[in-house]
Amino acid sequence: QVQLVESGGGSVQSGGSLRLSCATFGYTGNINCMAWFRQAPGKEREAIGSIGSAGGTRYADSVKGRFTITQDNAKNTLYLEMNNLKPEDTAMYYCAATWRYASTCALALNAYSKWGQGTQVTVTS
Question: Strand 10-13 vs strand 119-124: parallel, antiparallel, or unpaired?
Answer without folding.
Answer: parallel
